[in-house]
Amino acid sequence: MKVFINKRIPEIGIKMLEENGLEIFIPENDNLSQDEWLSYCKETDAILSVGGEFKYDKDFFNECPNVKAVALYSVGFDHVDIKEANQRHIPVGNTPDVLSKATSDVAFLLMQSVARRASYNFEKVKSGNWDAFDPLQALGQELYGKTLGIFGLGRIGFEMAKKSQKAFDMNVIYHNRHRNEEAENELNAKYVSFDELIEQSDVLSVHANYKPEQKELFNASVFEKMKPDAIFVNTARGGFHHQKDLYEALTSKQIWGAGLDVTNPEPIFKDDPILELSNVCVLPHIGSATVEARNGMAKLAAENIIAFSKGEKMPHCANPDVYNNE
Ligand code: 8YV
């Protein structure tokens, strides 16, 4: 069975695929254009798909009828039209759990970096502007006992809430489609409405799976209801926030600061004015970028491909319904 991998992944995953006798193709120059990527997809049975820039939609599946399985090298699957995949009986694998700690670490890092204006102050030092001591300058805020609001309390949100509670004794409130009983029992997390979430959070951290109907949910009408001291953190998908509205909210002091590991658009434009603000920290989507998490993702993605090649169910499947009508 032919497996196309559009970008090299950690060796542990490659080895697993090879040991199972799979024929792997990884292009030498892996900075593929859309056309190059599509031409490789047309020739393969299964794809181990790295990154979110290529979309698996109706057009894709029409153009690549040979593709029978897609194993994503990500937990997020917003770049796949799951309904289309289901209709064509194509399983879509993903990589849950193994990156929850790493990604929540980045949310935690951003929350603190913004609260203490760490990246802005580092830039000042680097540019030779270490100011004389001033009791009224460079003041951040403390997080002890404050309210952390989680939008989308799943695996990653749970880890963020746990850390924040242990480190800063934060109260946890959350808004989800479904109640998270584990978080309610273990972290005393309180379920609130969306409006309560945005009105009560001192730190509002986004961790939900992204769906197109949630496009720019966090926009001017939300930012204006948030507390003036609130910090907005997004490590989920840039599409969740309206970046210009966020900029306006930050400059007009409707909110206090923002920490972003994902931007809208992504990558962020070099001249985006949000990058100039002292109350912002932007990272280039590095949530899962640890050796441990990336190895874990490689292992899970390989397990999915191997199971598929043996005619078994993918063990980490984003669309388990695909197996219902067999
Ligand atoms: C990756 C991610 O950086 O897993 C996800 O959903 O956003 C990140 O882990 C990226 O998608 C790599 O494929």
Short summary of the structure?
With 326 residues, the protein is of the alpha/beta class.
Question: Per CATH, what is the topology of the largest domain?
Answer: Rossmann fold
Mean pLDDT over the full residue set: 97
Largest sheet: 7 strands, parallel
Protein structure class: alpha/beta
User: Which spans have pLDDT < 50 for at least 5 consecutive residues?
Assistant: none
What's the CATH H-level superfamily name of the largest domain?
NAD(P)-binding Rossmann-like Domain
What gyration radius follows from the Cα positions, in whole Å?
A: 21 Å
How is the largest sheet built, in terms of strand order?
Answer: 8-7-6-9-10-11-12
| Inertia-based shape | globular
Total count of helical runs of at least 4 residues: 12
Strand coverage percent: 5-15%
Q: Encode the helix/strand succession as letters.
A: EHEHEHEHEHHEHEHEHEHEHEEH
* Ions, cofactors and other bound molecules: 2-keto-D-gluconic acid
CATH class of the largest domain: Alpha Beta
What is the count of distinct domains? 2
Q: What's the architecture of the largest domain, going by CATH?
A: 3-Layer(aba) Sandwich
Q: Give me the count of strands.
A: 12
Helical coverage, percent range? 25-40%
**How many angstroms does the end-to-end distance come to?**
21 Å
